[in-house]
Amino acid sequence: MRFGWIFLMLTFLLLGCSQPKPEFAEWYAKHKGPKTGEYDASKLREISVRSDTFRIDSIYMSMHGPESYREFTAAGDDDLIWVVGYSVKVKAVSTGEESDIDFMCHNNIRTNNPYLYPWGPGGVDYYNRFFTLTQGYESASLPEGFGIPIPGSEVFHVDFQALNLNYAPIDTLVVQEVVLKYFLDSEIDFPIKPLMFHPIWVRMKYAGPPGDFGDPIPDIVSNQSMANRELFSNVQQPSCGIEMLASGDDSRYFDDYGRIFTGHWKMPPGEELLVYDMTKMLGLKENRTLHKLIPHVHAHCEYIEVIDLTANDTIIRCEMESFSHKHGLKKIEDFTSAEGVVFDKSHKYQFVSYYNNTTPDTITAMSVIHLFFAM
């Protein structure tokens, strides 16, 4: 009888675990209730966080400079955070004044574990890194009235890394300082439209059988041991791109069928046009409206495009500007729209990036877009 009760309790627990999480709108209506007031920017909060001190005393290529890490919280456990913006500055330690942004490789902010959020991911997948800032794109803002909802109990993680492509000899000390902008749900009486984050990145394949990441191969059994098991991960992404790093200093990652990919590659002088079918990575289960797109690229990228192949239409194009007298990005254009652009779940989509390396040197390259869809 005792074992029967144990079996029954385990059955209930398993059934409870298998219940799908509610969509955010359903969860919010139940736990927070409707808000009908007017937007009030005076309720905006900010948190400032600094990196360790970085000594710049050598040339540091992408992903090879000094780095540090910070954690912080922004609210009580029962509150809800609406993230609306994020920015970074590089400052000289000696003066406290703003220094050369050339000394920043990238800056990422992420949360601890979105799989533990009380609501579902909204028809795509969970990703915990939502802003990546870099040279040429030092400040990100969502459209007014939109925000990324984060449980108040979540821990924010900030990754800082330095860069120096241009100056030698040199010996200087700098820090990175970031500012997170957000509203607390407990302090506002106006509605905010929720956004979810979804990344798309070019996977450059340089070994293995034909096909994209994870494409089945007839008569070959999926087997992680076909690749290097130490480097395998189910959520592998480019090194400074979105979420999970390749192991150690190796930027390669592998699928179950022995294909080898990288999201962070070397490019010799000349042009490089990459056309990538992003449909599978997008993984839409329903139509979604895009309100923000942020590219993450390296110097000498001239533009990225998102193309609706089914409609034969370029729906988004962002142009970049590199410095002419040194290595580095001067400006990265993003896409922002309160009205939004609808992505149809039945359509196929393409991600295009174009690099033009006009220098005599081999450079590093990445092509990533951060998509923010309505939930």
Largest sheet: 10 strands, mixed
* Strand fraction: 35-45%
Q: Which of globular, elongated, flat, extended, rod-shaped describes the shape?
A: globular
Q: Which regions contain 5 or more consecutive residues with pLDDT less than 50?
A: 7-16, 224-249
Structural class: mainly beta
Q: Any idea of the CATH class of the largest domain?
A: Mainly Beta
Mean pLDDT across the residues is 86
Query: In angstroms, what separates the terminal alpha carbons?
Result: 47 Å
CATH topology of the largest domain: Jelly Rolls
Query: How many distinct folded domains?
Result: 2
- By DSSP (H or I, 4+ residues per run), the number of helices equals 3
What do these coordinates show?
By secondary structure, this protein is mainly beta. The chain has two domains: 24-193, Jelly Rolls, CATH 2.60.120; 198-374, Jelly Rolls (Sandwich). It has three helices and 24 strands.
